[in-house]
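Hey,
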Amino acid sequence: MQLNDLRPVAGANKDRKRVGRGHGSGHVKTAGKGTKGQKARSGGNVPPRFMGGQTPIHQQLPYKRGFTNIWKTRYNVLNVAQLAVLEVDTNTELTPDSLLEMGVLRNSGLPLKILGNGELDKAIRVSAHKVSEGARQKIEAAGGSVTVIEDPKLPKRSKGRTDKGLKANQDNQD
């Protein structure tokens, strides 16, 4: 066998269909596009996602396959086991800022939540936005204390209105 003996497999190369090139081509008049209709026109075709005018699947996503809750609050999560590893004094209070400086937390913009996975054998003082009941029991059983940080926030769906503005609107309606 030599290089000049190499040939593609039979049927691997096929000439393209030359439409609209006279009767001898076998594709005259409508050029293989059938008669009339949107897909017979020049430039007239629909994208693959087009579903005949009904609501497309990508617009039905909350109905078809779940959705993303845009009102969900995301947290920096720490377990009691992660707090037990930290080398801190008993009089030092662990706040989200101090934990961020230690490199324990990654995202400074999220509130802190303490969960109760793991064991704690030393007394620590913790300030967090949320604390699970199991974590609170373990920290207090070890002689520590838990402080919940209160964030004055607007109602989730307030669209920027404050309580003051809502009261003013209610007074005007009366």
